[in-house]
Amino acid sequence: MRKIVIAPDSFKESLSAREVATIIARGLASQLPHTELLRLPVADGGEGTLDALLDATAGQRIRQRVTGPQGTPLFANWGLLGDGRGAVIEMASASGLEHVPRFERNPLTSTSYGTGELIRSALDHGARHIILALGGSATNDGGAGMLAALGVRWLDACGQPLPPGGAALAQLAHIDSSALDPRLAECRFDIACDVDNPLTGVHGASTVFGPQKGADASMVAQLEQALAHYGHQLEQHCGQVIATVPGAGAAGGMGAAALAFLPCQLRRGIDIVLDSVGLDAALTGADLVITGEGRLDGQTVFGKTPIGVARRAKRHGLPVIAIGGSLGDGVEAVHQHGIDAVFACVQQITTLDDALEHAAANLERCARNVGALLALRKAPRR
To answer: Could you give the domains of the chain?
Structure first.
């Protein structure tokens, strides 16, 4: 075996994608010392996208003081890609649930303003291609906060600015975009969006994702009404259909805001990442691809990293092995989507805390065994 491409996602709460790739390579190298092991840590457009793209492009991490989802200041990170013209922003870094204790979550008032501040910082640094990952948001404000940071004014019937949050959008009477940052017209946005929910309705942002952000049934109804009005106002202002476009409801309606005001396309996060890190070029001349994530199960086939990697690998006619921290119900489904074999790191009954604590050792042992199995193919018959 001449070349193996190692393209895993992170193992959540234990190992970054870079660490996973390094550990797998170390385990394989112990059994396949003469094989080229190309490490290419990736992500699916959610958490870890920033790290994966900065690693792949030798980019620069930039720390920025922004407005958090509750209106209080916090520090968030975004990345300037190696070419100096591209940027990657994880919405969760500025406006994510991770910043709000569970008992304090309130999507009626939470704001995405900080995400707009990150975009503004990227513009200030000269970025004109911006990858915006929408996963993990704490907000249900339709992206109005993000756009406010970029110059849009949301006014009530008396011409007064609306307060932050999704509930206030029910009072929206006028949209003033005259001060929208003119640099946005020079940009191209790739919006990493792995859901196809519309803005409103039974599959909309408030109904499906509101409860995760702290909304009870009454709050969901209030937010639904507010976003319906907001969607109508957006369409009137922009002269195009917004609310019913698949993905408009992503990240509490951030998808709708992007469609209305940003020169963008909504794409699956895994495809954006794999294109950006150059996976297809890396697969040239390879004999095998190894991917993985913290848990492989029936949900893996819905836009997750291992399936995205496997589909690219199959275009090149390559076999694919996936290594998971654990295997869950329905994992067999991955075999219908390009993954030929799966391996679990955990070798015995254990607790979650113990598995997380020993993730690195378990992963290296699993990779070593995969390497030993591959080496058998080359071993001479006796």
So the answer is: 3-40+278-376 (3.40.50.10350), 49-270 (3.90.1510.10)
